[in-house]
Amino acid sequence: MEEKKLFGTSGIRGKIGSEISSELALKIGKSLAKYLNNTGKVVIGYDTRTTNRMLEQAITAGLIEDGLDVIKIAMVPTPLVGYATLKLGADAGIMITASHNPSQYNGIKLWNENGMAYTPEQEERIEEIYYNEDFAKVEWDKIGIISYNDEIKKQYIDDLLEIVDIKPGLKVVVDCACGAGSELSPIIFRKAGCEVITLNSQVDGFFPARNPEPNEANLSSLMKAVVATGSDLGIAHDGDADRMITVDEKGNVSAFDKLLALVSKKFGGTVVTTVDAGLCMDEAMMEVGGKVLRTKVGDVNVADVIIKENANFGGEPSGTWLHPDFCMCPDGILSGLRMAEIVSKEGKLSKLLDSFNDYPNIREKVICSKEEKIAVMENMEELLSNSFDDISEINTIDGVRLSFNDGSWVLVRPSGTEDYVRITLEAKTEEKADKIKDTCIKIIKENI
């Protein structure tokens, strides 16, 4: 019998109607209430999607019916939910978002009292309650209450401004994808001393300006705007602003791996990243006598290792960074501020990133349904290891990662949020990169 799963790599996510519904949200609310022993308070926020209020009302009903109080903070970036959960002393936080997915998707992500996402073990317990409908209603006079908190936004802004020191005069274009960062991110950059030009910062849950995923294919307007306005930096967020990518002063989208390596080098010590991060992380940390720890893909896995190892910083090569000196929730606004601080003090971003070695880097994805992903990955280690003869190491902590004798590597893993099997690789030559990619695509397609 196939194991029932609600949660992927980053919470619950799916298409409205077929996978995500008000009924699901109601039952998640009741499941969380049972998990928290039907007492306590929960912070709820949502991004700009048109289906958010529907899901917010349903999940709120499930929570208060089963005894929990709800603090609503309305439309906010995901990092503000993690921050508010911590600052308001709540027992949990809920963000209604599908992050970088298109507008027909939505989802639910849960946060601990310290602002860290729920772990896979916690999510499994929620799933168990959900599928068994092991709910526990309270008496009518114990039903939870709903309150509203607008002040937490100001406190979030003030605390962010305390943690960064941007040299005045930096010119920045901020592209919010019409998402949850649209109201706060430009304001925060202005208050931090930047000259800000806003782009796609009108709130619109249909994401009319661009797809909310912040990658080169979706950022042509930002790339042009940075050059046309003579700006020092472009900052792009995803739909819920827990991620960030930069565009340099020449209008080029920055390589995720290099950005992560640049900021990691500034923190020094121990940093945490995922199995899909590139070689420049290791090279950068070697320069400053630091150490890189790798874990499974997903911000919660990075957060877990940061806490266990008392690491200084952590992040994924997707623009999802965690700042343990602030909050354990990924924060695209703080990530952008920290990049602005570096550029304001150290000069042009293009030159800073050029200091890192360039290796051919490919990120490919093969369409594959949820059911097919399981079958495809079943013998992937054997299939890959039989296809290459210069393997130095095999890592199966998350998917299958092969390291080769010359330092090249490839990771094949099923997406936790979308219907793809992802191929991520880095090689010392273009020829080898193409060979690895073609071999992996062939293996996956032959086994779908």
From TrEMBL:
Binding positions (Mg(2+)): S99, D238, D240, D242
Active-site residues (renumbered): S99 (phosphoserine intermediate)
Described by its record, this protein's role is as follows: Catalyzes the conversion of glucosamine-6-phosphate to glucosamine-1-phosphate.
Sequence ranges assigned to domain Alpha-D-phosphohexomutase alpha/beta/alpha in this UniProt record: 5-136, 155-251, 262-357
Catalyses:
alpha-D-glucosamine 1-phosphate = D-glucosamine 6-phosphate
Q: Which family does it belong to?
A: Belongs to the phosphohexose mutase family.
Where in the numbering of this chain does the Alpha-D-phosphohexomutase C-terminal domain appear?
366-439
Which EC numbers characterise this protein's activity in its record?
5.4.2.10
> Does the record carry Nuclease as a key word?
no
Which InterPro entries does the protein's record reference? A-D-PHexomutase_a/b/a-I, A-D-PHexomutase_a/b/a-I/II/III, A-D-PHexomutase_a/b/a-II, A-D-PHexomutase_a/b/a-III, A-D-PHexomutase_C, A-D-PHexomutase_C_sf, A-D-PHexomutase_CS, Alpha-D-phosphohexomutase_SF
Descriptive protein name: Probable phosphoglucosamine mutase
The record's comment on cofactor binding reads: Binds 1 Mg(2+) ion per subunit.
Record-level Gene Ontology MF annotations: magnesium ion binding; phosphoglucosamine mutase activity
Q: Which GO terms describe its biological process?
A: carbohydrate metabolic process
The protein's matches in Pfam families, at most eight in alphabetical order, are given as:
PGM_PMM_I, PGM_PMM_II, PGM_PMM_III, PGM_PMM_IV
Kindly state which keywords UniProt assigns to this record, in alphabetical order.
Isomerase, Magnesium, Metal-binding, Phosphoprotein
HAMAP family attached here?
GlmM_A (MF_01554_A)
- Which lineage ranks, top first, belong to the organism behind this chain? Archaea, Methanobacteriati, Methanobacteriota, Methanomada group, Methanobacteria
- Cofactor(s) recorded in Swiss-Prot or TrEMBL: Mg(2+)
How is the protein modified post-translationally, according to the record? Activated by phosphorylation.
User: Positions modified as Phosphoserine?
Assistant: S99
